[in-house]
Structures are given as structure tokens and as C-alpha cells.
Amino acid sequence: MSDKFDVVVIGSGPAGYVAAIRAAQLGLKTACVEKWQNSEGKGVNGGTCLNVGCIPSKALLDSSYKYHEAKDDFKVHGISTKGIEIDVPSMIQRKDNIVKQLTGGISSLFKANGVTSIFGTGKLLANRKVEVTGHDGKTKTLEADNVILASGSKPIDIPVAKIDNDVIVDSTGALEFDSVPKRLGVIGAGVIGLELGSVWNRLGSDVVVLEAMDKFLSIMDQQIAKETQKILTKQGLDIRLSCRVTGSEVKGKEVTVTFTDKDGKEQKETFDKLIVCVGRRPYTEGLLAEDSGVNLDERGFIYVNDLCATGAPGVWAVGDVVRGPMLAHKGSEEGVMVAERIAGQKTVMNYDVVPNVIYTHPEVASVGRTEEQIKADGEPYNVGTFPFAASGRAMAANETGGLVKIIAHADTDRILGAHIVGPSAADLVQQVAIAMEFGSSAEDLGLMVFGHPTLSEAVHEAALAVHGHAIHVANKKKR
């Protein structure tokens, strides 16, 4: 096998494996280097997302919701159930099987597209050379015309709650509990904290979420954030804002967490398990030789321009290791863009229309700018909202919590943002994302025919409400 390639990708998460497949489809001789090993010591593709992130967490979210629904919500439909139990090891096994199937699927896709899969740790040297250290310790050097860095991210550690992978775990460890903890602490009320907290809350844990910020979901539209907090609190999550963790002490099989509350008073809580999820940071350890020519910015991300090119000729970087939201789909599309640009196409990515989703139940999803951001930019705007409580389809499904919010420019009527908490929010917000990609106005959405009865009608009604034309809810009087 020749060790000279048109493209070498380091990392096979959603950014890396997609970049490798697209490059190979475009006729480029491509290799993808991956360091991840499974519990059996075998190399596996898929990165954080498929192995210990998006996919396994969704498997547990769906399993735990089905349990909660059967135990607590079936009676409203006239279905009586007795003796509903959760077999946690079986739930975890199902999750593991899904991961195995999907990571194996990447290997099949690599074969089908002619991507050379190499397991080992990749390091970028000068002049687009990549040193690969195999799991056996042996090294070899690959040469490439182009290198794509897609090394991903890892959980941020905090010294006040050191991970011991037993009582104190990170997001990876929280996917592996073999039983339901009676008392569960979560540090961080971000996407990961809320999703994992929801899983174990549904299965019977008393969950306390400690968040240092004084605003809940501060990056989200605050009307939607407040509604989400209300819904999750009603479900049983004890969300405490302005709580800064100052220490933790493990004794036996429990941990006592010390924190200052919103009034500055010291508090203590004892848990059986503690999940630390205060964010993620780019993974660059051992990735770059000093003379590689690639620079990091002040936050440790690989510096790239709008097209994901680094400062070194022929070297690109995509996904969690570069600026922008740490989202699998954002990384994948960057991977496609870079592969196509290497092949001579003029592809660009629209960073203004990247959906963001929290997979609690109900889901929380957004695309475009929040009302707070638009207000700060000084642009005139109109807002339309529609509650799922007024949706016939949502009532039929017993899913009436939440609302759709659409924001449009007051002068041009162009849709600037959509924010949803409610049933199938992720799929509904994608409808608005498609509209935004084509420069739609709120009126355009309002003029479209939506099927009845569907959850999508809530999007239609919110678009109509932008101009006070909603049919199935009273319109706010224009001031």
C-alpha cells in the first residue's frame, strides 16, 4: 500500500468520516486515521458522537421516555398497566448494540467508497506529512496533498469535582450506570446535563442540577428557555441557577458536593452519583508538531478562516476542534465543504442557518437568531407564537406543552429565527431552516398549505401570528 494520498483525515467522528467519504466520492485517494478503541481494544470509527455522545444518549433518552410513558402516561389513553419495571442492564445493552451497528456501518461505508481506514494516533508534521502511531506502538508516515484535522472535543475537567469513573463521572460514564441512582447530582444545566438528567429522572432518580449561570439556557431565546425550565421543573428536575460548585468529597459510595447558592451562602448536597458536564474543549493534545504551521486561537481551537482552511497550506480543520457551535451536523457539513473545495468546487457553508437541538422531552430546538440577539443588533422585528395547547394533533397525542416562536424582520418580513419547545421540535424547526435557507418571509410560510391535523400546523400558525393573522389562537393586539 502506497503511503501517499490526496487527502488524509485525522479523526473519524461526524466531521472526519463524512469528509473522508465525500473526498473519496470526488475521486480523491483518501485515508482516515482514528485512535478510538472499544472496550475490546479494537479500533472503531465514529468518534464521540457515535460511541459516547449523540447516538447512545438518544438511545437512553428514548428507552427512558418509553418507560416513563408506560408507567405514568398510558392511563390517560385508557390503557392500564401494572408492574412496569426497567431492566437497566438490558437498556444499556440495547444502547451498546446500536452503537456497534452504526460504528460498523462507517467501516462498510469506507469500504464502499474506497476510503483507506487506518487505526492509530495521527499527528500532523510539517509539509502535510502525518505520523501514525499504531495501537502496537509502531509508527509510519503518510504523505498527503491535503490534510483535514477533525480531532473533535473532550469533556472539560473541573478540579473541584475530579472524575473517578465510579461515583463522579463525566458524560461518558453517565451512559454506563448499571442501576438507577437514588440521588443524582448534575453539574451544568447545558444540553448534555439536561439530557442525561432527564434520562435518570424518568427512571426514578432524584435529580439536582447545579448551574453557575444566573440564566437558564442563556444561549437560547429566553422566552423558550423560561418555558423549558418550567416544563422540566414540573417533570421533577430540581434546577438551581447561580450555584457555583466549590468542592466535592467522596466517601464510600456517595459524594458530598459543596456549592455557593444564589445568595452567596454555602450549601451541601449528598448524591449517590455525580455527573460533571460543564462543557467540552477542543482535543488537540499530541495532534500538531511544533513546525506543522497550524495555529491555535486563544481558546485552544485550531484557527481557521470561513472556509475551514488553517494557516498552513493544504491543511484544513473541521468540527468541534474549530470555532462555532460543537454540533455533529455542523462538523459534517464543514467536512463536505472542505472535501468539495479540495476537489476544486466553490462550496461555502451558511453558518446563519444551523439548527440546534436539546433532546429532552419535549424537545427544544432553534435556528437563526434569538429575540435577544436581534434586539441587541437594533433591528426592527415582529414575533409570532403559537402554543401546542391549541394544536388538535398535540392534544390527540397528549403532548400539549410548549410553543412555536417565529421572528421576522419588521421591514422585509424575512424570517430571522425560529425557536420551539414542544413535541417533535427538532423536526419542526428544520422546516423553518429550509425556509430560511431560501430567504423566505413569514408571509411565505403563512401562505403554504400545511396538512391537518399535524404538529406542523403550529409552525404555520406561528408564521401567521407574526402579522396577527393566526386562526386558532387569539392574536395579540398590535401596539
From TrEMBL:
Misc = The active site is a redox-active disulfide bond.
Q: Which GO terms describe its molecular function?
A: dihydrolipoyl dehydrogenase (NADH) activity; flavin adenine dinucleotide binding
Give the positions the UniProt entry annotates as the active site. Answer: 452
Q: What is this protein called?
A: Dihydrolipoyl dehydrogenase
Highest taxon listed in the record's lineage: Bacteria
Listed GO biological process terms: 2-oxoglutarate metabolic process
Disulfide pattern? 49-54
Give the cofactor binding note. Answer: Binds 1 FAD per subunit.
Give me the Gene Ontology terms describing cellular component: cytoplasm
